[in-house]
Design brief:
448 residues, alpha/beta, two-stranded antiparallel ribbon, 6-stranded parallel sheet, 10 strands
Length: 448
């Protein structure tokens, strides 16, 4: 079978999926894709291909100006009836939360048979949830090359003030018009680049979790992501000039990352600790009533924070007895106190999830993970060396674009970094670099 990294989009999206040597058949819900100049004009073709005739079109105030009006004009010219909803302009950025989804549910016209989102992260995620609830497909018209969730089968949402991934379905069609996307604000271009560079650390952590927990891992999916990142990095120096080939490389890389997540049926190919830095900062900003930076920009800073930790780990020698002593010394009361200090009003939900569902602190579970960590330590180090570039290799590339590389550049302080680094393992049941350090008994020692 041809490698995924060598396939065209049409081959990747083929009906029936791909029987893989990993033992799974990889499929994606994405059926129709157009990337390039004027792609938005293919919306009537996409709807006809899907057999849908009345879209519910969703935008916000910014994306309505960027592409929403053009989408509606394309539909009018084609004689396609539609219902349009534009989120009202807000002082704060729209969040993918219960309010946003509730607003969509209340505005939704049940005579519509497809949801068409016009936007990027928040619009895409909310439209996936609406489509899932209404049991109809979703389509996304991208407005910025800013995040990798376009084609994924999950929505990154805020539920009870906690950042979670809700698995629903990927869009059945994506229209990524580079004429529109190249005009996105500079910070959104930085965000897209940051989200792509995150794949270096995400792939390393995926392999580490495979070694420690036996979590599913597919080398063919990983190679698809690696090749996507390579193309983006090759063109990164032209991204700020909005060169068509650079913008298209980022757009395709972000979409392929989403396809990889859909193939894997999880976020592992694209998301690791670097994403959890961003999740923690977003949750903290929400709790304070403040505004966080763009997700991809925060993820890029998270990569920069993670690199020296990984480099330090390469010279570390695990100590079984020390790790056991460190974990045994953590009482439940002390753990809950730390959680409350970090998470504030969200702490009760974090504690409930640990005791009722996750059990990450269970001593028997730690014993098994620690044994496997020591047994597989050479493979863990190999994953880091093979997947992650050094700080000296990656930081100059990022700085050449002007994008932020430090927490201070996005208004964050030492406490924000500490809370994100220590608290990252608590918000979901996903094995991260911080989880590995906790199992080794050195999480606090590895904090900056």
């Amino acid at each position: 079978m041809k490698e995924f990294s060598q396939m065209t989009f049409e081959e990747l999206l083929r009906e029936g999926g791909h029987a893989c040597s990993c033992g799974r058949t990889h499929t994606t819900g994405l059926k129709f894709l157009r990337v390039g100049k004027g792609a938005v004009e293919a919306l009537p073709e996409a709807l006809a291909f899907l057999g849908k005739g009345k879209p519910f079109v969703v935008a916000d105030a910014n994306t309505q100006l960027a592409a929403g009006r053009r989408v509606l004009e394309v539909l009018r010219r084609a004689g396609i009836p539609f219902v349009s909803y534009v989120f009202p302009e807000q002082e704060e950025r729209l969040e993918p939360d219960e309010y946003a989804c509730g607003a969509l549910a209340m505005a939704f016209d049940p005579s519509c048979d497809v949801v068409v989102g016009v936007g990027s992260g928040v619009i895409n995620d909310c439209c996936k949830i609406l489509a899932h609830m209404a049991k109809i497909p979703s389509v996304i018209v991208g407005t910025a090359p800013s995040m990798d969730g376009y084609a994924s089968n999950s929505a990154s949402m805020v539920v009870n003030r906690i950042k979670v991934s809700l698995y629903c379905a990927s869009p059945v069609a994506i229209l990524a018009d580079t004429d529109i996307m190249k005009d996105a604000p500079t910070r959104m271009l930085w965000a897209g680049l940051g989200d792509m560079l995150a794949k270096y650390t995400a792939l390393a952590e995926w392999r580490i979790s495979h070694e420690v927990n036996g979590e599913f891992y597919c080398e063919k999916i990983a190679q698809l992501v690696r090749e996507s990142v390579r193309r983006v990095v090759e063109n990164a120096d032209k991204l700020m000039q909005r060169a068509p080939e650079a913008v298209e490389a980022v757009v395709k890389g972000l979409i392929l990352s989403g396809v990889a997540m859909d193939f894997a049926k999880c976020s592992r190919p694209a998301s690791g600790l670097e994403h959890y830095f961003s999740h923690m900062w977003e949750m903290s900003a929400l709790a304070k009533g403040e505004r966080s930076d763009l997700h991809g920009i925060q993820v890029g800073v998270g990569v920069c924070l993670e690199l020296p930790v990984l480099e330090k780990l390469l010279t570390f020698v695990p100590d079984k007895e020390a790790a056991e002593r460190a974990v045994m010394a953590i009482t439940n009361d002390e753990w809950e106190k730390q959680v409350r200090e970090i998470f504030g009003p969200t702490a009760n939900e974090i504690i409930r999830l640990e005791h009722m569902q996750y059990h990450k602190n269970d001593k028997a579970g730690h014993d098994g993970r620690l044994r496997r960590i020591i047994e597989r330590w050479p493979e863990i180090l190999r994953a880091i060396r093979e997947e992650v570039p050094t700080s000296e290799e990656l930081l100059p590339l990022m700085r050449a674009t002007g994008m932020p590389t430090t927490p201070q550049e996005i208004g964050l302080g030492e406490k924000d970094v500490h809370n994100a680094f220590i608290g990252s393992r608590e918000i979901r049941d996903k094995y991260l670099l911080s989880s590995l350090l906790w199992d080794l008994g050195v999480l606090n020692e590895f904090y900056y």
